[in-house]
């Protein structure tokens, strides 16, 4: 699964630490999600999408290999 979190963070002028604090996770969690090493829970995906005023599908996209 790919995501646009890094792009959305840049648009919102947020660091990984800023985003992590706003949604209640560690900076390492954000880093792992951005690097596609960790698939977030539904709740976490919704928190991220809500923060950026996007749908989950606008942030996260399935790939053919998923």
TrEMBL record:
> What SMART domains has UniProt attached to this entry?
HTH_XRE (SM00530)
Gene3D superfamilies for this protein: lambda repressor-like DNA-binding domains
The residue ranges of the HTH cro/C1-type domain are 5-59
The protein's UniProt keywords, in alphabetical order, are: DNA-binding
Keyword DNA-binding among record annotations:
yes
Q: Which Pfam families match?
A: HTH_3
Question: Can you provide one Gene Ontology molecular function annotated for this UniProt record?
Answer: DNA binding
**Protein name per Swiss-Prot or TrEMBL:** Putative transcriptional regulator
């Amino acid at each position: 699964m790919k995501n646009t979190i890094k792009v959305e963070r840049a648009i919102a002028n947020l660091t990984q630490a800023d985003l992590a604090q706003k949604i209640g996770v560690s900076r390492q969690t954000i880093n792992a999600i951005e690097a596609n090493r960790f698939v977030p829970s539904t709740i976490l995906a919704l928190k991220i999408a809500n923060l950026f005023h996007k749908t989950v599908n606008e942030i996260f996209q399935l790939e053919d290999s998923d």
